[in-house]
Amino acid sequence: SPPPYCHYPGYCAFYEECGRNPTVVGSLLPPIIPCLNYSRARALEGEHYQQLKKVCPMLDRGEGSTTACCSIKQLKSLEMSLMLSKAVLMRCPSCADNFAHLHCINTCSPDQTTTINVTRTMNITTLGIVKEAVVGYQAYLSTSFADKSFESCKNVRIPATGGYAIATMCGRYGSALCTAQRWYDFQGDSSNGLAPLDIDFRLIPEGVTEGIPDGVVPYAGRALGCNEMTPTGAEVCSCQDCQASCPVVPSPPPPAEPFTIGGVDGYLVLCVIFLCVLILAFLLFVTCTDKNSLATQEFLGSGFRAWGTLVASHPLKVLLASAVVTAAFATGLMHIELTTDPVQLWSAPNSRARMEKDFHDKHFDPFFRTNQMILTAPGRPGHFYDSLLFGKQNFSGIIAKDLILELLKLQRKIQFWSNDLNRMASLKDVCFAPLNPSNPSLTDCAVNSLPQYFQNSVANLNAKVNMTELGVTKEVDWRDHFIYCVNSPLSFKDITDLQLSCMADYGAPVFPFLAVGGYEKEGYTTAEALILTFSLNNYPRDNIKFKVALEWEQRFLDIVQEYQKSPGNPFTFAYMAERSLEDEINRTTAEDIPIFMISYAVIFVYIAVALGEYTSFSRILVDSKFLVGLGGILVVGCSVLASMGFYAWIGIPSSLIILQVVPFLVLAVGADNIFIFVLEYQRDARRPGEKREERIGRVLGNVAPSMLLCSLSESVCFFLGALSTMPAVKSFALYAALAVLMDFVLQMTAFVALLSLDARRQDGNRCELACCVTVKTTAPTKPNEGFLLPAMRKYYAPVLLHPVTRVIVIVVFIFMFISSIYLMFYVTVGLDQELAMPQGSYMLEYFKYLYAYFEVGVPTYFVTTKGFNFTSIAGMNATCSSVGCDPFSLTQKIQYATEYPDLSYMAIPANSWVDDFIDWLNPGSKCCRLYSIGPNKGKFCPATAFLCGQKCMKTPINGVLRPDKEQFNRFLPDFLVSHTHTHTHSKVTCVSVLLATRFMAYHTALTTSKEFTAALKIARELAHNITLSMRSIPGTSQDFEVFPYTVTYVFYEQYLTIVSEGLFNISLCLLPTFVVCCLLLGMDLRSGALNLLTIIMITVDTVGVMTLWGIDYNAVALINLVTAVGISVEFVSHMTRSFAMSIQPTHVERAKEATATMGSAVFAGVAMTNLPGIVVLAFAKAQLIQIFFFRLNLVITLLGMAHGLIFLPVLLSYFGESVCVRACVRAWARSSPNPDTTPHHPVRTPHH
């Protein structure tokens, strides 16, 4: 036999329990320690053997052949200790088996003395008997066993947190810095709350003998890989917990390579080729056909001539009738609804995102309202802290006790009341309270901040205590607790002697990315920002509590803004409330109304001044057209009011963008028609014997077809634009279409009547503003052409239509067109949310802080609809991620996506309520228990009750616990109401069947509209892939679906289709411009085609300039592009018709005449009407107005003017329709003062 206390096979170092370890306090389990007892291993039989076989099956050698160094009591204590550890590790049976393997060897191995070395004992007295107990020993392990055990456990997850189980078992190091040695060191530390004594684990590499006591052999048993089944038949660990179990998943394809040809930008190459082809075609062009018809013009001209004469003869009656009709329409304004909800404004009720949002909000609570502060302390010095437990740590300036206390003081201040519930209503009446939603107190409200790690307690923050660790005694304080909690946010007690909980006072964990920001990887102590978030419930807008929530948020903003101005404020911070976006948009709209008013006033003054004739100083008040200009403005205003009133009658809501854009659009269109009509009247001479009314009718007959051409094209264009699926675009198009149509109708009635009254006044030489005052100076007999018409006739038109200039113009504009086509491919799609804010808004600072300091993006839910059988084993396996689950389950596929965050935009994998339910049912968790005696015997026993000795389910042999259908339906309701489940972020809605469930993951931090849109697209692709997999499960309905949902999707969905949507809408707008032009020009297809081509070039060039000037393409830009088509019609169609009706003999001469006569009217009526008003918009505060109204409308106007007054005349001089001799004679005859006379000059045959 060996000498005493020798390391020898078959001998024990200790045996039986001696009592409690007096040096260990605050342990989760009684710290029972063994008695020092050097003796032979005991042979086991009967109950003793069965207990060993149950707890340590790896030591079983068969009954009668099994020896061990532990008593029954020791086995029961070991079983209880392992049960707590297995509750964390049980998702991976081989990991739990390896963990138990180690502690079974240390406690029960028959060769105990060969693997351990007792280093410290002490005498303890139990029942008056003094015994020598072991309080410390060395355990020798081979690195092969230790490393493989660690590898099997290091990736095991805790579903409720998305983190790793190893993080809770490695002390200061967390999961990132944990190693096998550090893992074992934590297990052997008696201060961890589980170990009853100190164990010094020595990990010895193979072949090393130095420093090992004689007779000691490092334990080198076989550790299981996580992808191996256990000897008892338990399944391999799941892919989520074991990388080796994962199937080979191909990497997602990289983003598509840019389109290139020969290494050069492919779009550039194609555009250069297209440019060359167009220029070559132009140089080789030969005029082809010669055709024209004046029948349509004769019909329209005679009709409008008769109408104009009739209206001019009864102006007061017409004005009265126009006022009555306008008033009848406008009374609908009493019922107008103004849409301000961004969701209703930009997302159609039948859009996919809107329907998914409605489904989510119906089955779950609407996404809670967020009120947030992000606080920094720039320039404040940090400090190093030498922690007893966590070593030397670098603390930034913001992670300081005084600042945390200041934040807590501010947090407590933001609790106030409202009277809207007929009683004092505080935060608790509207807050999001996940653990007590029915009757919450203030401490139940979900407030996430760093002070929540201390339960918002000043006493906890100030707590400090001396602690001894590995023979070193130091003071531990709030910093040690903070370090522990950010790495183990679900812990109910830290590992320090402070023994404080990490859970928030409302009972849920505060994950570090919700408390601090601006850190690298997991360096939470170096964070640069503190985050304070109040979450409120979201209510329908007609709910009284919605108003209470709005009042709370307003008071929140007031307090924060007041605090920001206080001199003692140590923070630099940004803030927002849920209402802030809508508030700021509405505020800036109200503030910019004066800018729009000034813009309209400038346009009005210009019109009033520019319409006058001014033949002499003495006749200024006679020849001015102030009242005519005012009348034209009133006609525009009445048409807008009539349109808005009509749609209010039929229940189509309006919006702020309609109030801003439609008057501007109608004014641009209406002013052009006013100028054309008035200038034509001023340039025309009354024929002998012709009455004033007849002259007005004749002039109207000349210009009204052109006015009809433009107005009808624009109106049909906008009506077709109403086919858009975007509510804002649709309502704008409807309002604009009717407003343009009403404007034309009122111009043909009220404005003609006003001009008739003004002409009567002017013919009587009466002053405009003093009708009773007359002047003696008579009007000149020669028509007044003004300044612009002679200048364009004498200088501009000849230079523009010079042979050399014409070639240059065509080449330059073709180059512009092709360049814009190329630039179109690079226009940015989207609208970054900060652009919706006015300059100087506090929200701009918030977005800046948000992008700088937030480490994780918005949460996104993967929602399942009804039709999936969760009660089947296959159904559970398809949605879980623990042992026995499908490697391509719902949660596992999301996990795969998070491994490629740059491509998937997924940062944190989804939690699964199915995993939580299975863990809750597991006997090892002690969560699901039944009453064992009493009247409720067999019923579910809540955690607070006693007499609950029965488990809901038995431990499965293979480690894969799955309830059957009856058990699933029986226990699921209890699971849903238990507080354990409310710590997760999954949710279930059920009645008799599961109607909807959701699994919450997190996006990466998204900053731009492009990233938000890409995240939505990828999430939908992932959800579709999951849907197809789950539909293949037997019993699944084929209409079952999984879809992603987060609060931002409803805004960014439009950008998935806005390019095709825009092409569709603009194409619909372009179609009527061609059709109407052809019809009203007597089936003149060539003129219609040239008209259409020029408008297309204006639109394309506008998009090209958008790319150069940084104007993003979005719904607001699309509205302006649709408007651009309408304004382009004004620039182009008048000129095209004037050319078509010209009787000059050559193309060039006809182009000169059209440029001089109609070009001058278009320049004065469209360009010079729009430009002054547009320039005023540059002074608006709202960035949206500056970018999408000032910049974009300036681009549209300048490009329209350039194409209409430069390119189109040259284009018509080359390709315009020819006029035949018979048409010239008929046109000349109709314009002759005496139709019976013959012309005094020969009519030349036009050149072809």
Quick rundown:
This protein has 1248 residues and is an alpha+beta fold. The protein has 37 helices and 30 strands. One of its GO terms (molecular function) is cholesterol binding.
Task: Provide a descriptive summary of the structure in words.
By secondary structure, the chain is α+β, with helices and mostly antiparallel strands. Helix content is 49%, strand content 12%. It has 37 helices and 30 strands. Strands 13, 16, 19, 20 and 21 form a five-stranded antiparallel beta sheet that branches. A hairpin with a 2-residue loop joins strand 5 (116-126) and strand 6. Helix 19 (656-683) packs antiparallel against helix 20 and helix 35 packs antiparallel against helix 36 (1183-1215). The radius of gyration is 42 Å and the shape is elongated. The N and C termini lie far apart (129 Å). Mean pLDDT is 83; it is low at 285-293, 979-985 and 1220-1248.
Overview features:
membrane, 5-stranded antiparallel sheet, 1248 residues, 37 helices, glycoprotein, NPC1_MLD, SSD, alpha+beta, sterol metabolism, disordered C terminus
Helix/sheet category: alpha+beta
Tell me the distance between the termini: 129 Å
The parts where pLDDT drops under 50 for at least 5 residues are 285-293, 979-985, 1220-1248
The mean pLDDT is: 83
Classify the beta-strand content into a percent band: 5-15%
Q: Tell me, briefly, the overall form.
A: elongated
Main sheet properties: 5 strands, antiparallel
Radius of gyration: 42 Å
The helicity comes to 40-55%
Number of strands: 30
Protein name: NPC1 like intracellular cholesterol transporter 1
Keywords: Cholesterol metabolism, Disulfide bond, Glycoprotein, Lipid metabolism, Membrane, Signal, Steroid metabolism, Sterol metabolism, Transmembrane, Transmembrane helix, Transport
Membrane topology: Multi-pass membrane protein
Catalytic activity: cholesterol(in) = cholesterol(out)
